[in-house]
Amino acid sequence: MNMMLYVGFRGKNNSSGILAESLSPECLLLTNSFEGLKRDIDSISKEYDQVVMFGVDKTLTSMVRIEKTAIHDGKKVMSSLNLDEISRSLNSAGIQSVMSETPTTYLCNEAYWHLLGMFSGNVVLIHIPKMQRNRKIREGRRNEYS
Description:
two-stranded antiparallel ribbon; alpha/beta; about 35% helix; about 25% strand; Aminopeptidase
């Protein structure tokens, strides 16, 4: 059985966290600090076969960006997943995607670096546009769990 972990970032309106939570109730939401996210990542069980991490890029509007690499202290590491297949799957679902070999330089890159090492490259970072949580969905979930 293929165990997959979805990862996003904490925050009431953080699109990456909203998406991760919508995909799996057992997702991981990372702390929005370098020390906190490292602590969160170190607490992950090694039982997962693959990790799909989402980060927000406010410059994106109508597509997602699949990150091939992370960089730390001048060293680059790459995802070992079939990113072309992931891109094709997204595109066939109507989600336009592009690939990037230029790592970001902030929290997403740091988390990606640590996750790639922890899971032997079986991780992908997908940057998504900022989105607003649908009010009806919020109200529905609140009523469903009340």
